Amino acid sequence: MFLFNLLFALTGLLILTVGAIVQSSYHHYSNFVADESVSVAPILLIIVGSVVFIIAFFGCCGALKENSCMVLTFSVFLIVIFLLEFGIGIAGYVKHGQLEEILEKGFNSTLHNYDKSIDSQHAWRLIQSELSCCGVQGPRDWEQVFHNNTLPNSCCVQMPANTNECTIEHSLQDGCMKKLLSLLQTNALILGGVGIGIAVVQLLAVCFACCLSRAFKRNYEAV
């Protein structure tokens, strides 16, 4: 049982790590994610991962002391965690299907506010440099912002030798929305898969803990 709870604690670390990685990617490009509820699932996963360590402690103590009450408490906590993780998993898959619409709103909003907002300028410079992309669907999206056939410098990997201005001819051709969508969809699927996968494992753990609690109780009554 002790080894089982050690494994359970490690799953908590896995949950926390996955939640932190997914939340980091959402936060890093938060200007383009127009729905704050998208970040709720990874935050919950971080909280759940932390709580799992505490629950694993109860399980270890209960098993070492052969205390049926502590093991039963462990089982109740496991059920609550199971429901949370299953819900997080479902939320991850639901948001996976809505990401394209959410990103489209965010990208169009920051593009239209580019001249008015320093945050939008910084966000576009960051995403175009890191994801090697230009514009929402492509470099021509910038024509509604720049009217002299130039683009933000972050659209060009190498500037033309005879000028300091980035132009469509020398720019990156891939749109940023497609690249960010692919990144976030992968994260959403990982989030959902981890949530549901570990929830199933922990459901089996509930059954095991309940059986162990009954065994401890029978041994206590026999004494």
UniProtKB/TrEMBL annotation:
CDD domains: tetraspanin_LEL. Keywords: Disulfide bond, Membrane, Signal, Transmembrane, Transmembrane helix. It is found in: Membrane. The chain crosses the membrane at residues 40-64, 71-94, 188-212. InterPro entries: Tetraspanin/Peripherin (IPR018499), Tetraspanin_animals (IPR000301), Tetraspanin_CS (IPR018503), Tetraspanin_EC2_sf (IPR008952). Residues 1-20 form the signal peptide. It is a multi-pass membrane protein. One of its GO terms (cellular component) is plasma membrane. It holds the Pfam family Tetraspanin. The keyword Nucleotide-binding does not apply. Disulfide bonds join 133-176, 134-155. Belongs to the tetraspanin (TM4SF) family. This is Tetraspanin.
